[in-house]
Amino acid sequence: MADLAPVVVVIEDDPQMRRFLRTGLGAQGFQVFEAATGRQGLVEAGVRKPDLVILDLGLPDLDGVDVVKALRAWTRLPILILSARGAEQDKIEALDAGADDYLVKPFGLGELLARLRVALRHAALAPAAQGETFSTGNLRVDLQRRLVYVDDEEIHLTPIQYRLLAVLVKHAGKVLTHRQLLKEVWGPAYVDHAHYLRIYMSQLRQKLEADPARPRYLLTESGVGYRLRA
Length: 230
Hints:
Layout: E1 7-11, H1 15-27, E2 31-35, H2 38-48, E3 52-55, H3 64-72, E4 79-83, H4 88-97, E5 101-104, H5 109-129, E6 133-136, E7 139-142, E8 147-150, E9 153-154, H6 159-170, E10 176-177, H7 178-185, H8 194-208, E11 218-221, E12 225-228
Parallel strand pairs: 1-2, 1-3, 3-4, 4-5
Antiparallel strand pairs: 6-7, 7-8, 8-9, 10-12, 11-12
């Protein structure tokens, strides 16, 4: 971890889950603040200015999706959903509202910590990624010159293929829903044209992945969307 302990606000009404997170995250160097309601969580987030928020959807006063929307009105800090709601539509609704990731209860502490690390890395790199170079493994994207390389060999992409990749780079490590990607790449009129996305994602994998059937970078979040491995 960094020299300064990352600050996490946990918004969760279950005392046992809060204790589990406080103990597990604290042992890994996180500074944890807790809230048992959505309104209290919004206050904590405003006062503590955390590096990350962990949020349950089933709160006693507000729906977690409404908490996500309220946070997104003023901050871009990473929001990780922890919820017993495992339906695809619940995931899509939370991610469309602005959450960065979604983990279904029950979960392992190891996976949670890995996702927190990805979210914090993404948040730290986001300002630089706007006009510089993104790299992961043997994939490199020069955003200023609009050039893409695999193993230092330039890969030709069509304008739409590049635009799709650039949106994924901009949000590297974050799950993007089908609707989010369709809106950013093709525009609001195309949010129901999921077949466009499947076709172009397949094309990108053919050009960028060593084994398109088992992608290393362009990952599918089943029923929800896609994520570029950061």
